Amino acid sequence: MQTIYTDVLVIGAGLAGERAAIEAAQAGFSAICLSLVPARRSHSSAAMGGMQAALGNCDKGAGDCPDVHFADTVKGSDWGCDQEVARMFADRAPIEMRQLAHWGVPWNRVVPGKSTYFKGGKQLEKEEKEENRGLITARDFGGTAKWRTCYVSDGTGHSVLFTVDNVCAQLGVEVHDKTEAIALIQDGATCFGVVARCLRTGELRVYLAKATTISTGGFGRIYPCTTNAVICDGGGHIPAINTGLVPMGNMEAVQFHPTGIVPTDILVTEGCRGDGGTLLDVNEERFMNIYEPDKQELASRDVVSRWMTHHIRQGKGVKSPYGEHLWLDIRHLGEKHITGKLREVYEICTSFLGVDPIHQLIPVRPTHHYSMGGVRTNKDGAAYGLKGLFSVGEAACWDMHGFNRLGGNSLAETVVAGGIVGKKIAEFLAGAEVTFNSSVIDAEVKKQQERIQNVISCKAGTENVYKVRLAMQTALHKGANIFRDNAGLTECVASLQETLVRARKVGLKSNGKGVNPELSAALKIEGQVKMGLMVAYGALMRTESRGSHNREDFTARNDRDWLKRTLAYWKKDTDTLPTLDYEPATPLFHIPPGDRGYGKSEIIKAETPAGDKG
Amino acid sequence: MARSLKFNIFRYNPQDQESTPHMESFVLDETDSMTLFIVLNRIREEQDPSLQFDFCCRAGICGSCGMVVNGRPSLACHTKTKDLPEETTLLPLPVFQLVGDLSVDTGSWFRELYDSVESWIHTKKVFDPAAKEERMENDVAEAIYELDRCVECGCCVAACGTARLRPGFLGAAGLNRVGRFLIDPRDERTEQDYYDIIGNDMGIFGCMGLLACEDVCPKQLLLQDQLGFLRKKMGITALKNFFKK
Q1: CA distance B60 to chain A (A)
Q2: CB distance from B110 to chain A under 8 Å?
Q3: pLDDT digits 0-9 by tens, B20-53
Q4: Listed residue (B167, B169, B168) closest to B208, CA to CA
Q5: How far is B98 from chain A, CA to nearest CA, in Å?
Q6: Does A94 touch chain B (CB under 8 A)?
């Protein structure tokens, strides 16, 4: 068995993981990133819109500062975030944007003079100051008080990822792509690394490390309709869940994006609405201006997604063979703007839909987009439950997003948190002495070899992995979607429990030799169903509505009983439900719970006596 | 009536001693808005679960799914079946190491490229977290981004006559990468430094000017202009070097 040692092992080579690895490498430590795909293909590359940071250089960002960014983030989270973490993030973000500029990111810059922009379908004018010429500029995004989203034309994630991967190459951070971590090596107290499967040969390999970091992004592929890439399947969470020691935070906090195209659910960026795109119904009439007169199309994601679903339920959806949808209209932005700043959107529409957005409407529907929940960590990025285990980025619940994340905050989180957590990992490494116990390593390897053999030989049964996966996705789509209630969630949990039994009986149809994709899917299906149950059961138990978690039977945000974070454990292999625990949402309040200023404002305040509905 | 589509797909699993390279045919009915992403996943889920291929973003952004579609290197995710005949042949990209069936190893190839062209900003300046960012004209930023748009799918390399003949040739993707740093004011390398990297047969002078790279580029990068620009720049540097001697 090939065994590779490194000071820090990073699972996932997207922006968060690579950024953290850079900090460790700069402090003189060796770092290896494992990745399913070459680093630059990571899903970070698909985030086109931008990164929020309060630089305040552009006209519409004048007067911005980290305090305002922090306030927007806390409001966006519907007071579900850890305010200490959100504060660290907002303070660090402007410095990180400059760091990225230093490394080579070609941020768009301030161009002095008058120019026009669209808001809510109206053409308005702004003027950039000469003194700010050439500084990093920003665009508008949903849910923010100022224009704060730094961007690189239509390819922010792509461009930043290429830059950060360049820095990794420069510093000698190794990326072992086509490698999948399938289990953590740990002794109940400390994490020592992983057992990984090589996706070039199918062979197992051991990676030993003083610090192991999970940064594998979201897990949207447990849903049938998602904007997430194929690789965002929870593969990094599962090894942590399977230890029984590491909890997942707020798994029920799932965000839906208003504008996935129909039928492939490819995301068209918020930038469309930020730049003045409007949403239309079956009669080609706007509706967001009626539901949200102030923010209109620019209200936060959960609000827009909910009103879209509501409007479709009112019979205003456009019928299609793939279900009902609404229209996104960017025609009035003009050819130059659409083929320039929104080129990626133009390409998506023409390449994948055969729609020309300069002259035609784009079919859109809300689709699964982002997982606020994930591996629960403290503010240093250290995972609960195991020493030497860290997590960062969308994979983690560091928790600056609470129950709803703002557009542009997640891509910013990858690099900002990557930098902060990376530094903490380097500090940890400086003081760490680890003794590797060969019997712990050998036992985990043997366990994984047996697991693989059993699946190949159909020891537990011959359930088809793709059919089981579809059953899981269908259950979540039906019961744990934008609108949730007791009946739907109860049915969803029951159905997922049946699916779990089937997942444990999966056996291969093919021979499992080499880089067998059926084997890859089979090795994670049980873990995926467990994650689905964490989402659905957590949502069932949370009898309130907060951010993107909307209970039709508990419509108020309940700060009296639910100003807390769900911690979901999978304690024993044989369990059929996660074990839920709770902790306070935040250790301190810079901003006490209040009204978000958009969306519903039904709140049961913390001081409301029990029994009173508030 | 929906068309019945036939796909002739290259099959070989190097890790299976019983496997030999061969073509295998699969038939399925066409549906609306069908792309090769949908086709290949359906074949895997409904007909042969061992079929290897690579997709990631399935949205034309990540460059994972390059393959040869009816003789032409393309991204499978944005290849619509309505643009294909009833019979289609799918082969893995040449030049890159085969992993199995339609899956190839582009990661190792590009990683070597980053090292050989030192694909990062070379500067003596040290980042000062307390200072404002250095200013840059927006036009310059946009010009850099234009060259940064390459998704490293490998289609241009697979379609390149020189790359097929000469392992180690940088290809359009590699040369374009060098061009990206050459126009970036933050990179302090001189034209001579770039000449040392690409002023040879493995670099810009290896290009035979066939320009299939631009024809197949799924991001429509202006590779012809870029190669011409680099050839001129490096040609002038070569002349300067000649007269210095």
Answers
A1: 8
A2: yes
A3: 999 999 999 998 778 999 999 999 999 999 999 9
A4: B169
A5: 9
A6: no
Q: With contact defined as beta carbons under 8 Å apart, do A572 and A244 qualify?
A: yes
Please tell me the distance from the alpha carbon of residue B128 to that of residue A95, in angstroms, as a whole number.
9
Sequence letter at residue B170? L
CA A200 to CA A515: how far, in whole Å? Answer: 6
DSSP-assigned states of every residue in A330-348:
-GGGHHHHHHTTTHHHHHH
Show which residues of A are catalytic. 257, 273
Residue A450: closest CA among A183, A113, A177:
A183
Tokens at residue B191, please? 């034209």
B187 in contact with A, Cβ within 8 Å: yes
Nearest to A267 by CA among A185, A172, A368: A368
pLDDT at position B67: 98
B118 contact A CB<8A = yes
Q: List the single residue in B57, B132, B140 with the smallest CB-CB distance to A46.
A: B57
The verdict on whether omega for the bond into residue A263 sits within 30 degrees of 0, i.e. cis, is yes
The half-sphere exposure of A255 on its side-chain side, counting CA atoms within 13 A, is 30
Contacts of B141 in chain A (CB under 8 A): 106-109, 152
Nearby residues of A150 by Cβ (< 8 Å), 6 or more positions away: A50, A51, A52, A53, A55, A97, A107, A108, A136, A137, A138, A156
Contact at CB, A517 and B44, closer than 8 angstroms: yes
Could you report the per-residue pLDDT of A107-158, keeping only the tens digit for each? 999 999 999 887 766 789 999 999 999 999 999 887 788 999 999 998 999 9
pLDDT tens, position by position, B180-206: 999 999 999 999 999 999 999 999 999
Q: Which two tokens stand for residue A558?
A: 């309940």
Predicted ipTM beyond 0.95:
yes
Query: pTM score, two decimals?
Result: 0.95
Which position has the token pair 């409001």? A75
Helix A517-541 to helix A465-479 angle (10° resolution) is 20
Distance, in Å, from the CA atom of A515 to the CA atom of A512, rounded to the nearest integer, reads 8
If one counts every other C-beta atom within 10 angstroms of the C-beta of residue B49, the result is: 21
Residues 55-74 of B with CB under 8 A from A: 55-64
Q: Report whether pLDDT(A86) > 60.
A: yes
Coil, helix or strand at residue A391? strand
Does B133 sit within 8 Å of A98, measured CB to CB?
yes
Question: Would you call A152 and B141 a contact, using CB atoms and an 8 Å cutoff?
Answer: yes
Locate A324 and state its tokens: 């009902």
Which burial class, exposed, middle or buried, applies to A89 when counting CB atoms under 10 A from its CB (0-12, 13-18, 19+)?
buried
Angle at A305 between CA A300 and CA A310, to 5 degrees: 130
Query: Min CA distance, A275 vs chain B (Å)?
Result: 18
- Region of A188 please: left (phi>0), alpha (psi -120 to 50) or beta: left
By the 8 A CB rule, do A562 and A265 touch?
Answer: no
In three-state secondary structure terms, B11 is strand
Please give the structure tokens belonging to residue A608.
């409301």
Tally Cβ neighbours within 10 Å of residue A126: 13
- The residue to which tokens 């060098």 are assigned: B178
Q: What is the DSSP secondary structure assignment for residue A383, as one 8-state letter?
A: B
Measured CA to CA, the distance from residue B156 to residue B215 in angstroms comes to 8
Q: Nearest 5°: phi and psi at A582?
A: -135, 155
- Is A348 at the interface with chain B, CB within 8 A? yes
* Cβ proximity of A262 and A363 under 8 Å: yes
First to last CA, chain B: 73
The Cα A182–Cα A447 span in angstroms is 11
Residue B23 contacts A where some CB pair is shorter than 8 Å: no
Q: Do residue B151 and residue A158 have CB atoms under 8 angstroms apart?
A: yes
Helix, strand, or coil (residue A561): coil
pLDDT at B71 over 60: yes
Give the integer Cα–Cα distance in Å for A567 and B81: 46
Q: State the amino acid at position B12 in one-letter form.
A: Y
